[in-house]
Structure formats: C-alpha cells, structure tokens
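Please fill in the sequence for the structure shown.

STRUCTURE ENCODING:
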C-alpha cells in the first residue's frame, strides 16, 4: 500500500491539546483521496523540538498492511503539516475546481446540471474504455438530467503510442462541432482493440465521414497536428491536479482514480446532497 502525502494546512479554533482528531483524519482523507477501506489513526501530539509545533504518528492501515508517517500539529491548533501546507478551512474539491478550465471542453448533459463529472482519459487505455462504458452506459443513464460529463485528454505517451494522435484526431473533430467529436470519441473506444498505428489515421477519417463531418478539413487538421496544443493543455492541467494515471474523474471536484462505478455513483449521490463542490 502506497499513499503519497504532500501537504495540508488546517484551521481549527482549538488549542493543539484539544485538537479534534476526527476532523484532522477526515481532512487528510479528503485531501489525499484515501479510500474508505484504509483506516487512518493519529496519535497524541508530543513536543517535537520545533518551535510552534508538536508531532504525532499518523498510521494508514488496510488489512494486515500499514504505513506510518508523521503529522506536525501547530500549537495554535489551526495547522498541520505533512510535507507542506494546506488550509483546512478550504475545501479540497473547490481547490481542484479552481484549476479547471472547462470553457472549450466537450461535454454531454445539461449545462446547468448540479453535478459535473470531468474525466481525464486515454483512447488506448483499456481501463479508460471501461471508464467510458461506466459513464456512457450507467452514470448518464442513471442521472440523465443531473450530470454533465466533461471530456479531458490525458494520453499516456510513454506507454501508448496511439493515444496522443487519437486525442488530436478527436480534437480536430471537435473543431467542426461537438456532435462530431462525440461520434469520433465513442467510435475510438468501441473499436479500441482493432486500432493499430498503421490504421489509426484511416479509421479516424472513416469515423468523421460516418459522422457527417468534412473529411478533407479533418485530415488537414490532423496531418498538421493543429490540435496538439489543446491535448497538451489538458495534460498540463491534469499534472497540476496531481493526476498521472487514467482514467481519472473529478465528481464536482472530488477525485476518483480508476474506473470505479460504485465510488463515482456514491460521489454523485453525495454531490446531489451538497457534500462536494460545484464547478
């Protein structure tokens, strides 16, 4: 079990001696997307020799596996440190939302839907195909008027040679219209196992033709790599959010790593109850 801990800043109106461990634990879980199956426990803060702070052991346990780290608790009862600081008075979901630019991103579902699911995906990734099926066949059907599904590209270029050109092709289709984008998007995932580096360009042109698009305009865009910048922008945004794998979902800002229907559905339900931020 590996948990990456980078930072947190707290704001509790309590002295350190009266620190509410339950609040601290919940903030750590939300900030670092620690699964519910992982138990988090924090020991009693003790003098650490650093002015203004006491330290305590924080343990992450799942089954027989455990990992221990150190949490530094400020004497003012308002801050804690796991490498660098976050503000516990802020909402981690809202912090992620603030980094998103959805202005040019393809989307399905009502513009004023109460829940926005942003998906970072890779057309060559088999788990992303599963993520696509979860969104297309389940979430969007379970919540037809309540969820807006937003596409973001995150081609894992180090392992998937077709992912970036496929993403550029989808973006070229989007330049014609969003309906064409989604037809190409869906076709890429539907035929994922059939795609090869040699056939990809012809397949993309075929999807554009079948979708009623302008094939010549598409091919000119694709061959000139006119949409590489858009693909790279999405990837840079993902990096700023700490997302390095696919698929990844933000449900009103709450991060889900992997094609996990149960977790996505739970977070949608919670978001409808006002428990997560709104983009």
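FILLED IN BY: designer on duty
SEQUENCE:
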């Amino acid at each position: 079990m590996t948990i990456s801990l980078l930072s947190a800043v707290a704001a509790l109106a309590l002295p350190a001696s009266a620190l509410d461990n339950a609040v601290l634990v919940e903030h750590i879980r939300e900030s670092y997307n620690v699964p519910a199956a992982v138990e988090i426990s924090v020991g009693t803060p003790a003098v650490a020799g650093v002015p203004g702070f006491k330290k305590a052991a924080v343990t992450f346990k799942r089954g027989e596996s455990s990992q221990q780290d150190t949490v530094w608790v400020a004497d003012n009862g308002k801050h804690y440190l796991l490498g660098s600081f976050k503000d516990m008075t802020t909402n981690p979901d809202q912090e992620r939302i603030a980094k998103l630019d959805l202005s040019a991103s393809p989307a399905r579902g009502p513009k004023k839907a109460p829940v926005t699911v942003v998906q970072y995906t890779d057309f060559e990734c088999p788990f992303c195909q599963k993520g696509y099926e979860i969104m297309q066949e389940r979430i969007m059907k379970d919540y037809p008027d309540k969820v807006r599904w937003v596409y973001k590209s995150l081609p894992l270029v180090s392992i998937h040679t077709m992912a970036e050109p496929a993403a550029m092709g989808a973006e070229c289709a989007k330049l014609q219209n969003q309906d064409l984008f989604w037809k190409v998007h869906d076709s890429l995932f539907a035929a994922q196992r059939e795609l090869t580096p040699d056939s990809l360009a012809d397949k993309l042109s075929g999807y554009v033709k079948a979708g009623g698009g302008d094939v010549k305009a598409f091919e000119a865009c694709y061959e000139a790599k006119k949409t590489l910048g858009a693909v790279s922008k999405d990837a840079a945004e993902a990096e700023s959010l700490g997302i390095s794998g696919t698929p990844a979902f933000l449900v009103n800002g709450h991060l889900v790593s992997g094609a996990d229907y149960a977790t996505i559905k739970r977070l949608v339900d919670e978001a409808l109850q006002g428990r997560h931020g709104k983009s």
